[in-house]
Amino acid sequence: MQASSNTSAALAALLIALAPVAGHAADAATGGAPLSAPARSASNNADVIARAERAAKPALSEEALRETDVWGRIRTGYAIPDLDNSLVAKHITWYSSRPDHIARTTARASRYLFHVVNELEKRGMPTELALLPFIESAFNPQALSSANAAGMWQFVPGTGRDFNLKQNVFKDERRGIVTSTDAALTYLQRLYDMFGDWQLALAAYNWGEGSVQRAIKRNQALGKPTDFDSLADLMPAETRNYVPKLQAVKNIIANPGQYGLSLPLIDNQPYFTAVDKTSDIDLTIAAQLAELSVDEFKALNPQFNRPVITGGEKTKILLPQENAEKFHLNLAQWGRALSTWTTHKITGARERIETLASKFHTTPEVIRQANNIPQRSMLVAGSTILVPKISSSLNVDIAPEVADNATVNYVADRGGKRAGNYKAAKGGKASDDDAPVKLVKARVPRHAAGRKGHRNDD
């Protein structure tokens, strides 16, 4: 009884403390327009109670700790109100009739879900948000849309920079498992604080917060409700289907047998751990030391764009728990150079790949592949490319400032016509700021999956 009394008192105090915050969230959700007194009271009370319950919940609930499978842990933390409409039914049918797609997606997810769920629980967020990459990328961290949204959580370049996701020739943290998850959850938290409603927060993650705010104001002006269902007709098709898709996946995960599906067992324990590296290391050597295939290594470290991992001690690599110790043991016995690459800056007006290959005792194809340079292209002044190390650079790491600011610019090898400009922000993909010649520069929303375009996610 005493414990219950103390909990009630603490909750009451928390309710009082959170009341002003909840009022602010309600204002944000209505675009700043005043609510009627009864509506504001109901909105405030519901939001305050929800916040208090989340805050009173331990980072890892007893139920979550008891779970032996991550899927069960996700089910335990479901907290977003359910949708039940024809779109949900449509997407349940789509997913449940594609067991191969579900099998591929859940197999990929098995590497990442424990980490995502852990981070959600630390923040007191609904655990079904861990299923959002089902919709965004099919849990493929290499997914790239035609609008250049990248990674498991599909950040466009501008939003990635807003959340401190580094994008340069050598790495794109929009693809990084830890970095992109942290950014995505921070963004979703911000959107929830803005709208006070998880369904609207999800719509804003897909469509953009400004678009959702304008839709809310439009319905308010017409005296209409501003919940997700009431705003759906104002949304583009992708956003209108976005939350129903998540609901469909949520229903399937809740009871896969009901839909004739099975899920792989995902142990309720970390799949990977972060390992320090002390110097530049070739991606293939890192995989070899960890006794992993290159594909498995890339699945945990998809942010690295080049065959060498730079960044000194501040850069960590992710390895399965059982392979981290192998990495350290093999590294201690390696006794050879860890990196076979260095950088070379083009100082002349133009330089042919064949000339560079001869200078660095390699083939043109090796240089093209290492730097994502198309055939029949010449490098122009200011470009910084990877080249094989020669004797004078064997023990020299690539300086962080070089890696952070490197660009690769090229022109057509014949006729001098520009073929494109490969900026650091894309690590070898033509940037939205420097589209290839003859292509009109496209405007990309800050984070608008509704206009992301096709994703190469499966």
Query: Which H/E pattern describes the elements?
Result: HHHHHHHHHHHHHEEHHEEHEEHHEEHEE
Helices, by number, come to: 19
* Helicity, as a percent range: 40-55%
The number of domains: 4
Structural category is: alpha+beta
Tell me the strand percentage band: 5-15%
Give the strand order, joined by hyphens, for the main sheet: 6-7-9-10
Number of extended strands: 10
Gyration radius, in Å = 25 Å
What's the average pLDDT?
A: 82
Shape: globular
Q: Give the biggest beta sheet.
A: 4 strands, antiparallel
Poorly predicted residue ranges: 1-59, 415-454
How far apart lie the N and C ends? 54 Å
Signal peptide: 1-25
Pfam family, one: LysM
GO molecular function: peptidoglycan lytic transglycosylase activity
Protein name: Membrane-bound lytic murein transglycosylase D
Structural commentary:
Keywords: Signal. The chain has about 450 residues and is α+β, with helices and mostly antiparallel strands. It has helices spanning about 1-30, 35-55, 60-65, 70-75, 85-95, 100-125, 130-135, 155-160, 175-195, 200-205, 210-220, 230, 235-255, 285-290, 295-300, 320-330, 355-360, 365-370, 400-405, and strands at about 270-275, 280, 310, 315-320, 340-345, 350, 375-380, 385-390, 410, 420. Strand 9 (about 410) and strand 10 (about 420) form a beta hairpin. The chain folds into 4 domains: about 1-55, no CATH class; about 60-140 and about 175-260, no CATH class; about 270-330, Membrane-bound Lytic Murein Transglycosylase D, Chain A (Roll), CATH 3.10.350; about 340-450, no CATH class.
